[in-house]
């Protein structure tokens, strides 16, 4: 059956548009580069997971599982981008098609869109949880969340908002063939993939476009506001407040780990925000360049890798284990049981001098 887009392809595209696109602009190029990157990333993901599970010292037990949670979400989103979904976007329009494994498994493109959006926002929530954990670990913090039921409610509300806001535009997806023809007004010369691939057009209606922009912006602002609040709490109680509720060595540990957490969040954030900002500018300026679109996807997939690598570099037990592995040093291997910091020994000496060793004001964990 001859469709409108097929007629446009035969009568307009072949006459007016060039087919001399580069390998990077093709879906094959995006697929080859992204899959090749994942082959290199997976060993790093596995090594970092092993470090968190096996090389986390007792002094870091309070943050072990939340750190693992953040790491797993970052790795999962990277795997989605590099292998499972691998989105081929047609910016400046809100359309594209996947070239990853889920496409081979016949998962509908609309479902993959939902998986991608929700996974990215859940990854942001996991980062919020990491900073909340650091904030709640400070004993004299008035805003710390200590009860499990309140934490469960807090994160349930965040997850509920992320899940619900996508339902209205998802239920108002336009008829795809007419929507694709409409998009050709904005990008009259897309790559040839546009005509023979199962392109998914989320919306062409101004109302739903504005809804997606505004609602996504509000949710991102909400999550960043929470990150900012917990960061401010940590800075105030670790560096400004004069109320001493913990030992100086414990505070030193908390400051050190907090700085590591900041680095762990900020450095990969560059690889996340830069392609997003460029994508927004491209959409706003209505500029179409498929090489640029594919490059943004590849650059975005570096986010999880950099996050994983920073975890190893900024946290001393993992960094020390990495050095031992690289230098083939098998002596005095650091483990979660044997690893004891000098500061922890000092805290134990302090405890021995106290008449009441169970005092809540001295803590050796963080």
UniProtKB/TrEMBL annotation:
Domain of life: Eukaryota
Pfam families: 7TM_GPCR_Srh (PF10318)
Record-given protein name: Serpentine Receptor, class H
Membrane-spanning parts: 32-53, 65-91, 111-131, 152-170, 211-238, 258-284, 296-314
Keywords per UniProt: Membrane, Receptor, Transmembrane, Transmembrane helix
